Amino acid sequence: MRVAWSPTLGYARPTREVLELAEGAARTFESFGCEVEIVEEVMDDPVELWRAEFFASAGTRLRDALRDSPELLDPAVAEVLEGALDLGLDDYYSKVFERYALREKVRRFFEDYDLLLTPTLPVAAFDADRNVPPELPHRSVVDWVYYTYPFNLTGNPAASVPCGLTEDGLPVGLQIVAGGHRETDVLRAAAAFEAARPWTYPGRASPAEDRK
């Protein structure tokens, strides 16, 4: 299979440990006989498209709660939706057509590659009481996940597989993305990776040992 490894997609800001663990995991695919090519830039950051999509859908769904009982919503969600109902129809549909263009760009990308590998998240796991990781204070609760929201917009199948632990014992994931309607490729790749790199956490047996 033709495999692209993209450290940042062209805009993400991963931590050093995340990048090292994910890149090492991506190189595992070379042992399967795949040619792994580094692709630095896949797309521009589609964060504005993602915000428009999220705000329009969530804002419409939660319109009454936002207006009448915002205290019933998670404060972080209520905060990012404050401007959702101010998004005009023209503004929204301009973003819709930009999303179509993004989908076409990604579709063409997968004419050259069977799989795209990235870190799943730009940081390792962080405290549950935080809305955003401390490394990315300028991002919000819905858009610090640099690597995953583009494929919410394009609809490409994707999976995350554990690919290692940081020095502090925190889990890191590798994201596997394929072309449209190629779910089988994602599942085969994930299964092959997990067979080659069985994951374990401290005090936990590997999946293979669990099955014994």
For this entry, give a set of tags.
41% helix; Amidase signature (AS) enzymes; 5-stranded mixed sheet; 212 residues; globular; 14% strand; alpha/beta
Report on this structure.
The chain is α/β, with parallel strands linked by helices and 212 residues long. Helices cover 41% and strands 14% of the residues. A 5-stranded mixed beta sheet has the order 2-1-3-5-4. 26% of the residues are buried. The mean pLDDT is 90.
SS field, number of helical segments? 8
What value does the average pLDDT take? 90
Order of helices and strands: EHEHHHHEHEEHH
Question: How do the strands line up in the largest sheet?
Answer: 2-1-3-5-4
Overall number of domains: 1
Low-confidence stretches: none
Assign the CATH superfamily.
Amidase signature (AS) domain
Structural class: alpha/beta
Shape: globular
β-strand percent reads 5-15%
| CATH fold group | Amidase signature (AS) enzymes
Helix fraction?
40-55%
Largest sheet: 5 strands, mixed
Quick recap:
By secondary structure, this protein is of the alpha/beta class. It has helices at residues 16-27, 47-61, 63-68, 75-80, 89-112, 149-154, 183-196, 207-210, and strands spanning 2-5, 35-38, 115-119, 158-165, 171-178.
Strand-helix topology:
Elements: E1 2-5, H1 16-27, E2 35-38, H2 47-61, H3 63-68, H4 75-80, H5 89-112, E3 115-119, H6 149-154, E4 158-165, E5 171-178, H7 183-196, H8 207-210
Parallel strand pairs: 1-2, 1-3
Antiparallel strand pairs: 3-5, 4-5
Helix pairs in contact: 2-5
